[in-house]
Amino acid sequence: MSLAEKLTRQNIQKLVPYASARRSMSGGNIWLNANESPYANEYELDCSVLNRYPDFQPKSLINGYANYAGVKPTQVLASRGADEGIELLIRTFCEDQEQILICPPTYGMYSISAQTCNIDCKKVPTNADFSLDIEAIKAAKDNVKVVFICSPNNPTGTLVSHQQIEQVLEIFKGQAIVAVDEAYIEYAMETSVVSWIEKYDNLAILRTMSKAFGLAGLRCGFTLANENIIQAMSKVIAPYPVSWPVAQIATQALSEAGLARMQQQKADVLVQKQRIVDALASYDYVYEQIESHSNFIMFRTEHKKALFDTLVQAGILIRDYSSQILLDNSLRISVGSKEETDALLAVMDEFKG
């Protein structure tokens, strides 16, 4: 046994790492498997400050995102993607023998982040229509300190109703933080619960610039919550979590011109999304589409392996989720550019099952 094997914590030895799109698949020339924006934009960079450590929470970035989200700057914490926000919530609020609660099928990093912190994860599956099983959540509430709800949900694209989110907030009032992951909220902005921050002292909201903003490579995310939650998380986060290049580029993306560009590119994505939705509805080999409020579409086909392999052979990568609970025969397509959609549909039009 190597020294590393000897010293590695038992929970890490047992840990199966998150199978990200890049980690689980390589190759291809059309990537429709990671819910990224198809648009890469140009930004200016001031390199004169790169010899200095960045501000802990760069003021221009925090003010820019607070203004965009409609919250106070003191209610914003910037981090290395929303993934760091997930881990910070667990590290800040969970102790030994305490747990997080998730409702699969949902984003896999909630569970993995808990495992890396040696925190147990309670799993309360959704109903068949992907709504929350409120009674089961109530029954599982003991020892839970953080609840994660993703809406629009990854990987299904479905929404959790405001009524159900409010029920969960009430169930865990005085006991646990309810983190609503709004990574895809730009595609369903009217469903955001950001206005509830003042009302619920146990509400935290996770946001990212990786999706509609087209900055997945930047790794910039935010936690929005009341000042007490933000201050507690600020004690745990690394001393320089946001680099100068990240702060500069993200601030530009949050400018008036940057926001206008994001909205236009989002509209372009939705045009291509509708093309895919219409095409899927016409294919005999697709027996169900799951209604999506995001920049991806999940569908079911009994020929999922053959279709998946056919697309890979054509250099087009999508995602297979059929091994997850409630997602039998499910594939997911991230929406790309017009040219990428043309290539995708050309292959799918010819596929016979």
Q: Approximately how much beta-strand content do the residues carry?
A: 15-25%
Order of helices and strands: HHHEHEHEHEHEHEEEHHHEEHEEEH
The number of distinct β-strands equals 13
Distance between termini?
48 Å
**Major β-sheet strand ordering:** 2-8-7-6-5-3-4
> Count of DSSP helices?
13
Report the structural category. Answer: alpha/beta
- Measured as a percent range, the helix fraction is 25-40%
Largest sheet: 7 strands, mixed
Radius of gyration over all CA atoms, rounded: 21 Å
Mean pLDDT across residues:
95
Globular, elongated, flat, extended or rod-shaped: what is the shape? globular
Low-confidence stretches: none
Q: What oligomeric state do these chains adopt?
A: single chain
